[in-house]
Amino acid sequence: MAINSIWVVVELTDAGPTTTSLELLTAARGLGSSVDAVAWGTNVAANAGVLGEYGATTVYDIGDIGDALPGSPVAGAIAGAIAGGSGPDAIFIPTSYDGRDIAGRLSARADLPVLTNITGLVGGDTMTTQHPVFGGTQIVNASFTGNGPGIYVIRAKSFAPEPSGGAAASVSSLAVPDLGTTNSASITERHVEERTGPKLDEAAVVVSGGRGLGEAANYALIEDLAKLLHGAAGASRAIVDAGWVPYAHQVGQTGKTVKPDVYLACGISGATQHMVGMKGAKNIIAINKDQDAPIFTIADLGIVGDVHKVVPALIEALKSH
Ligand SMILES: Cc1cc2nc3c(=O)[nH]c(=O)nc-3n(C[C@H](O)[C@H](O)[C@H](O)COP(=O)(O)OP(=O)(O)OC[C@H]3O[C@@H](n4cnc5c(N)ncnc54)[C@H](O)[C@@H]3O)c2cc1C
Questions:
Q1: Taking all residues of the chain, what is their mean pLDDT, rounded to a whole number?
Q2: Where are the domains of the chain?
Q3: Taking the complete model, does pTM exceed 0.85, yes or no?
Q4: What is the CATH number of domain 205-319?
Q5: What is the residue with the minimal CA distance to atom 42 of ligand 1?
Q6: Which end of the chain is more exposed for a tag (fewer CB within 10 A), N or C?
Q7: pLDDT grade, residue 210 (50/70/90)?
């Protein structure tokens, strides 16, 4: 089925739309003749400018959902529009906790098919989706064959966000139907993770440490180097699982996908599950004492050496500048 109208589910924070939401709007612009956003909260109208700048003509405002989880009201509102005949041809949803919840509930409520884990989209009469499998070593192409609007759940960093220079989106409210008991879960507490420096998935420089660091205390070297480079500190799953650093630092298939200008892998072997989360970096530097470590196969610059010597030397060199 030809895709004309695309709705993009946009997640808003106090600082504006999430980067992934802007990535999805950018992608939608190149695929559909009409792109609109769906958003909720108290600040939707305040974001109409930026949403228009990234390609949305209209932002459908679901309104203030209070302490409800977005899954039920957002899925209910979109399903209501589809049932009323005013829905789109495709719905783009970010791969986030709330996004996945919205997609699952929308699929059940509107009896629509879902494609998840999408990292690429190719337009045409029938839109083709791309999905990495086997740790990113193979790509599966898929497309919907039915008539109903398809739900596309798209991974972060699959597209670069680019403003189109469009005018502010017009704001139109989208009604939430009676949700019954499906809306009875609510948020009781919010925890804002402490962080200094840039966000891991938005930093221009990422310095990551792995098991080659030897022990938890040595992760301080990674943090020091990241700070000196105005970057963020990342980690392999091995040291997250070992309890050296929180999960929020994990890069890879089951962690964050990063695409910095420079990615520095220190004492990381380069398992496919790690590389799938960082191989899109513009420049990859690897420090490993094993010259046959797989990470060197994708590194632009490889340093065969001991992280306990190379990283402190780098820190000293940067400090002396
Ligand atoms: C379903 C699934 C999902 C996964 N998801 C992820 C994920 O999201 N992210 C992720 O990272 N992993 C993930 N993994 C785990 C992954 O397979 C690897 O086990 C993990 O990435 C290894 O971490 P590492 O490179 O730190 O450790 P290791 O593989 O043990 O490598 C340590 C490296 O350090 C080097 N080294 C040792 N000492 C020194 C030294 N003094 N100086 C320099 N180098 C040294 C060694 O030569 C070695 O190459 C996943 C696995 C599965 C099965």
A1: 95
A2: 5-183, 205-319
A3: yes
A4: 3.40.50.1220
A5: 306
A6: C
A7: very high
